[in-house]
Amino acid sequence: MTPRRVGAAGICVLVCMSAFVGSAQAGSARADLDRASAKPSEFVTVTGAGWQPGTIVVVEVCGNEALDGAVDCAPSTATDIGVQPDGSFSTLVPVVVPPSPCPCVVQVTSTNETTELRLPLEVIGAPTAPPLARSAVPDIRRHLEVTQAELRGSSFSGWFGFPARRTLVVEVVNKSDVALHDVAVAVTAGKGDAPTGYVDAGDIANIEPGETHTLRIPVSFDPLQFGELTVAGSIGGAVEPVRFGATTTNPPVLPVLLALLVAQWLLLKVRNRLRRRAERLDEEPPADAEPDEQGPIGPSADDEVLDLTEPAPDDVPVVVELDEPAEENPTTPDPEPEPVDVALVDTTPIDTAEARILRRRAEQVAEALIAASAARSQELEERAARAEAEANGRLLEALEILDRADARAIEIQEAAAAVAADTLRRAARQSVEVPRAGGFEDSISNAVSKALAEVRLPTGID
Length: 462
Description:
Blueprint: H1 3-20, E1 23-26, E2 29-33, E3 37-38, E4 43-49, E5 56-62, E6 79-82, E7 89-94, E8 104-110, E9 116-123, E10 144-152, H2 156-159, E11 165-174, E12 180-190, E13 197-199, E14 203-207, E15 212-220, E16 227-235, E17 242-250, H3 253-283, H4 353-433, H5 439-454
Parallel strand pairs: 3-9
Antiparallel strand pairs: 1-2, 2-4, 4-7, 5-6, 5-8, 8-9, 10-11, 11-15, 12-13, 12-14, 12-16, 16-17
Helix pairs in contact: 3-4, 4-5
């Protein structure tokens, strides 16, 4: 039989099957198509019943009746759908021309690989050929091997909170004897072991047997991500893809600068507050000081009080002298009245007993007043001395705190300057001694990362 007749017979068999199938069944599991033929870029609906609840079903369009497994299937049509608790599912599948010639089928496979159904589908306009017997070609996930996956490049803008940009370089080797087409590549980026940021990676259009294909995928991380950043990806295989990962470091320059600025601001604020407090202590008088430094002058509780209500002896005359008023001058304004001086004058020439008693009492009153004034003056002087000593002590404490704050600020500034200088030296040394594909920016980035990891800033004020 000629190949043409064989091809015609195969097409006839496919058309005859299309009249009856749009469905398939294996045990209790069943799957159906809403139609038997479709054009590329159209969609067909696949429904199922009797599948194991909670499992994932993979649906894809394949050529050659999917006899060679995933090699005959188009990865771009692979669709994952969860089985409902009643064992049913429904999904739309895009129709494309598969990598192998028709007869074409829609392959439905459960993730536990216990059930696999093939629903015949006529792809209008697709090439056809007699189906080949199942060969020993393994699944696609056993074909591909990722030999290298790393992130290259650096971006100074990422150090200050902007999106960090890198280039993901992945080398994929096809170790099989067949060419692979439209191999899907999925990549996510972010922090942690399971990043969630989407990265547009595209597909591998064609990879020949034994060929090493290098993917260069631009990766942009989210803003304000510092420290270790991770990229995770997978290539080919809807059920068990080939997975890979890579990491990079974005130096936390922005957080360090913010911490230094905040520390400097706090130190300045504490210093200014202490300085204002010291100035207030210098200006304000002590709280226990009297308004008048001399204090009230008068007899104290211990002084002898002279009772002036006692009548004076009759033989002791009291003379009151009054200043004579000035003569009236009609040409000048009246002057203010002069205060009247009242003086107690003893004009008795005879030294009588009563006179001696009055003199002694007057002397006692004068001595008591002088002693009270001297005691009060001494007490005020002692209080003033104590207040001055306390104010000086507080001022000295405030000045010591200011000195410690200034010293700590200088230590922080010196530490920051040392970090910057060490970073520049390491970056320059690495750029000269170890040139690599990442460029000068990559060397500076690694140097800054190591330097910042070794920095130990001084603590705050005690």
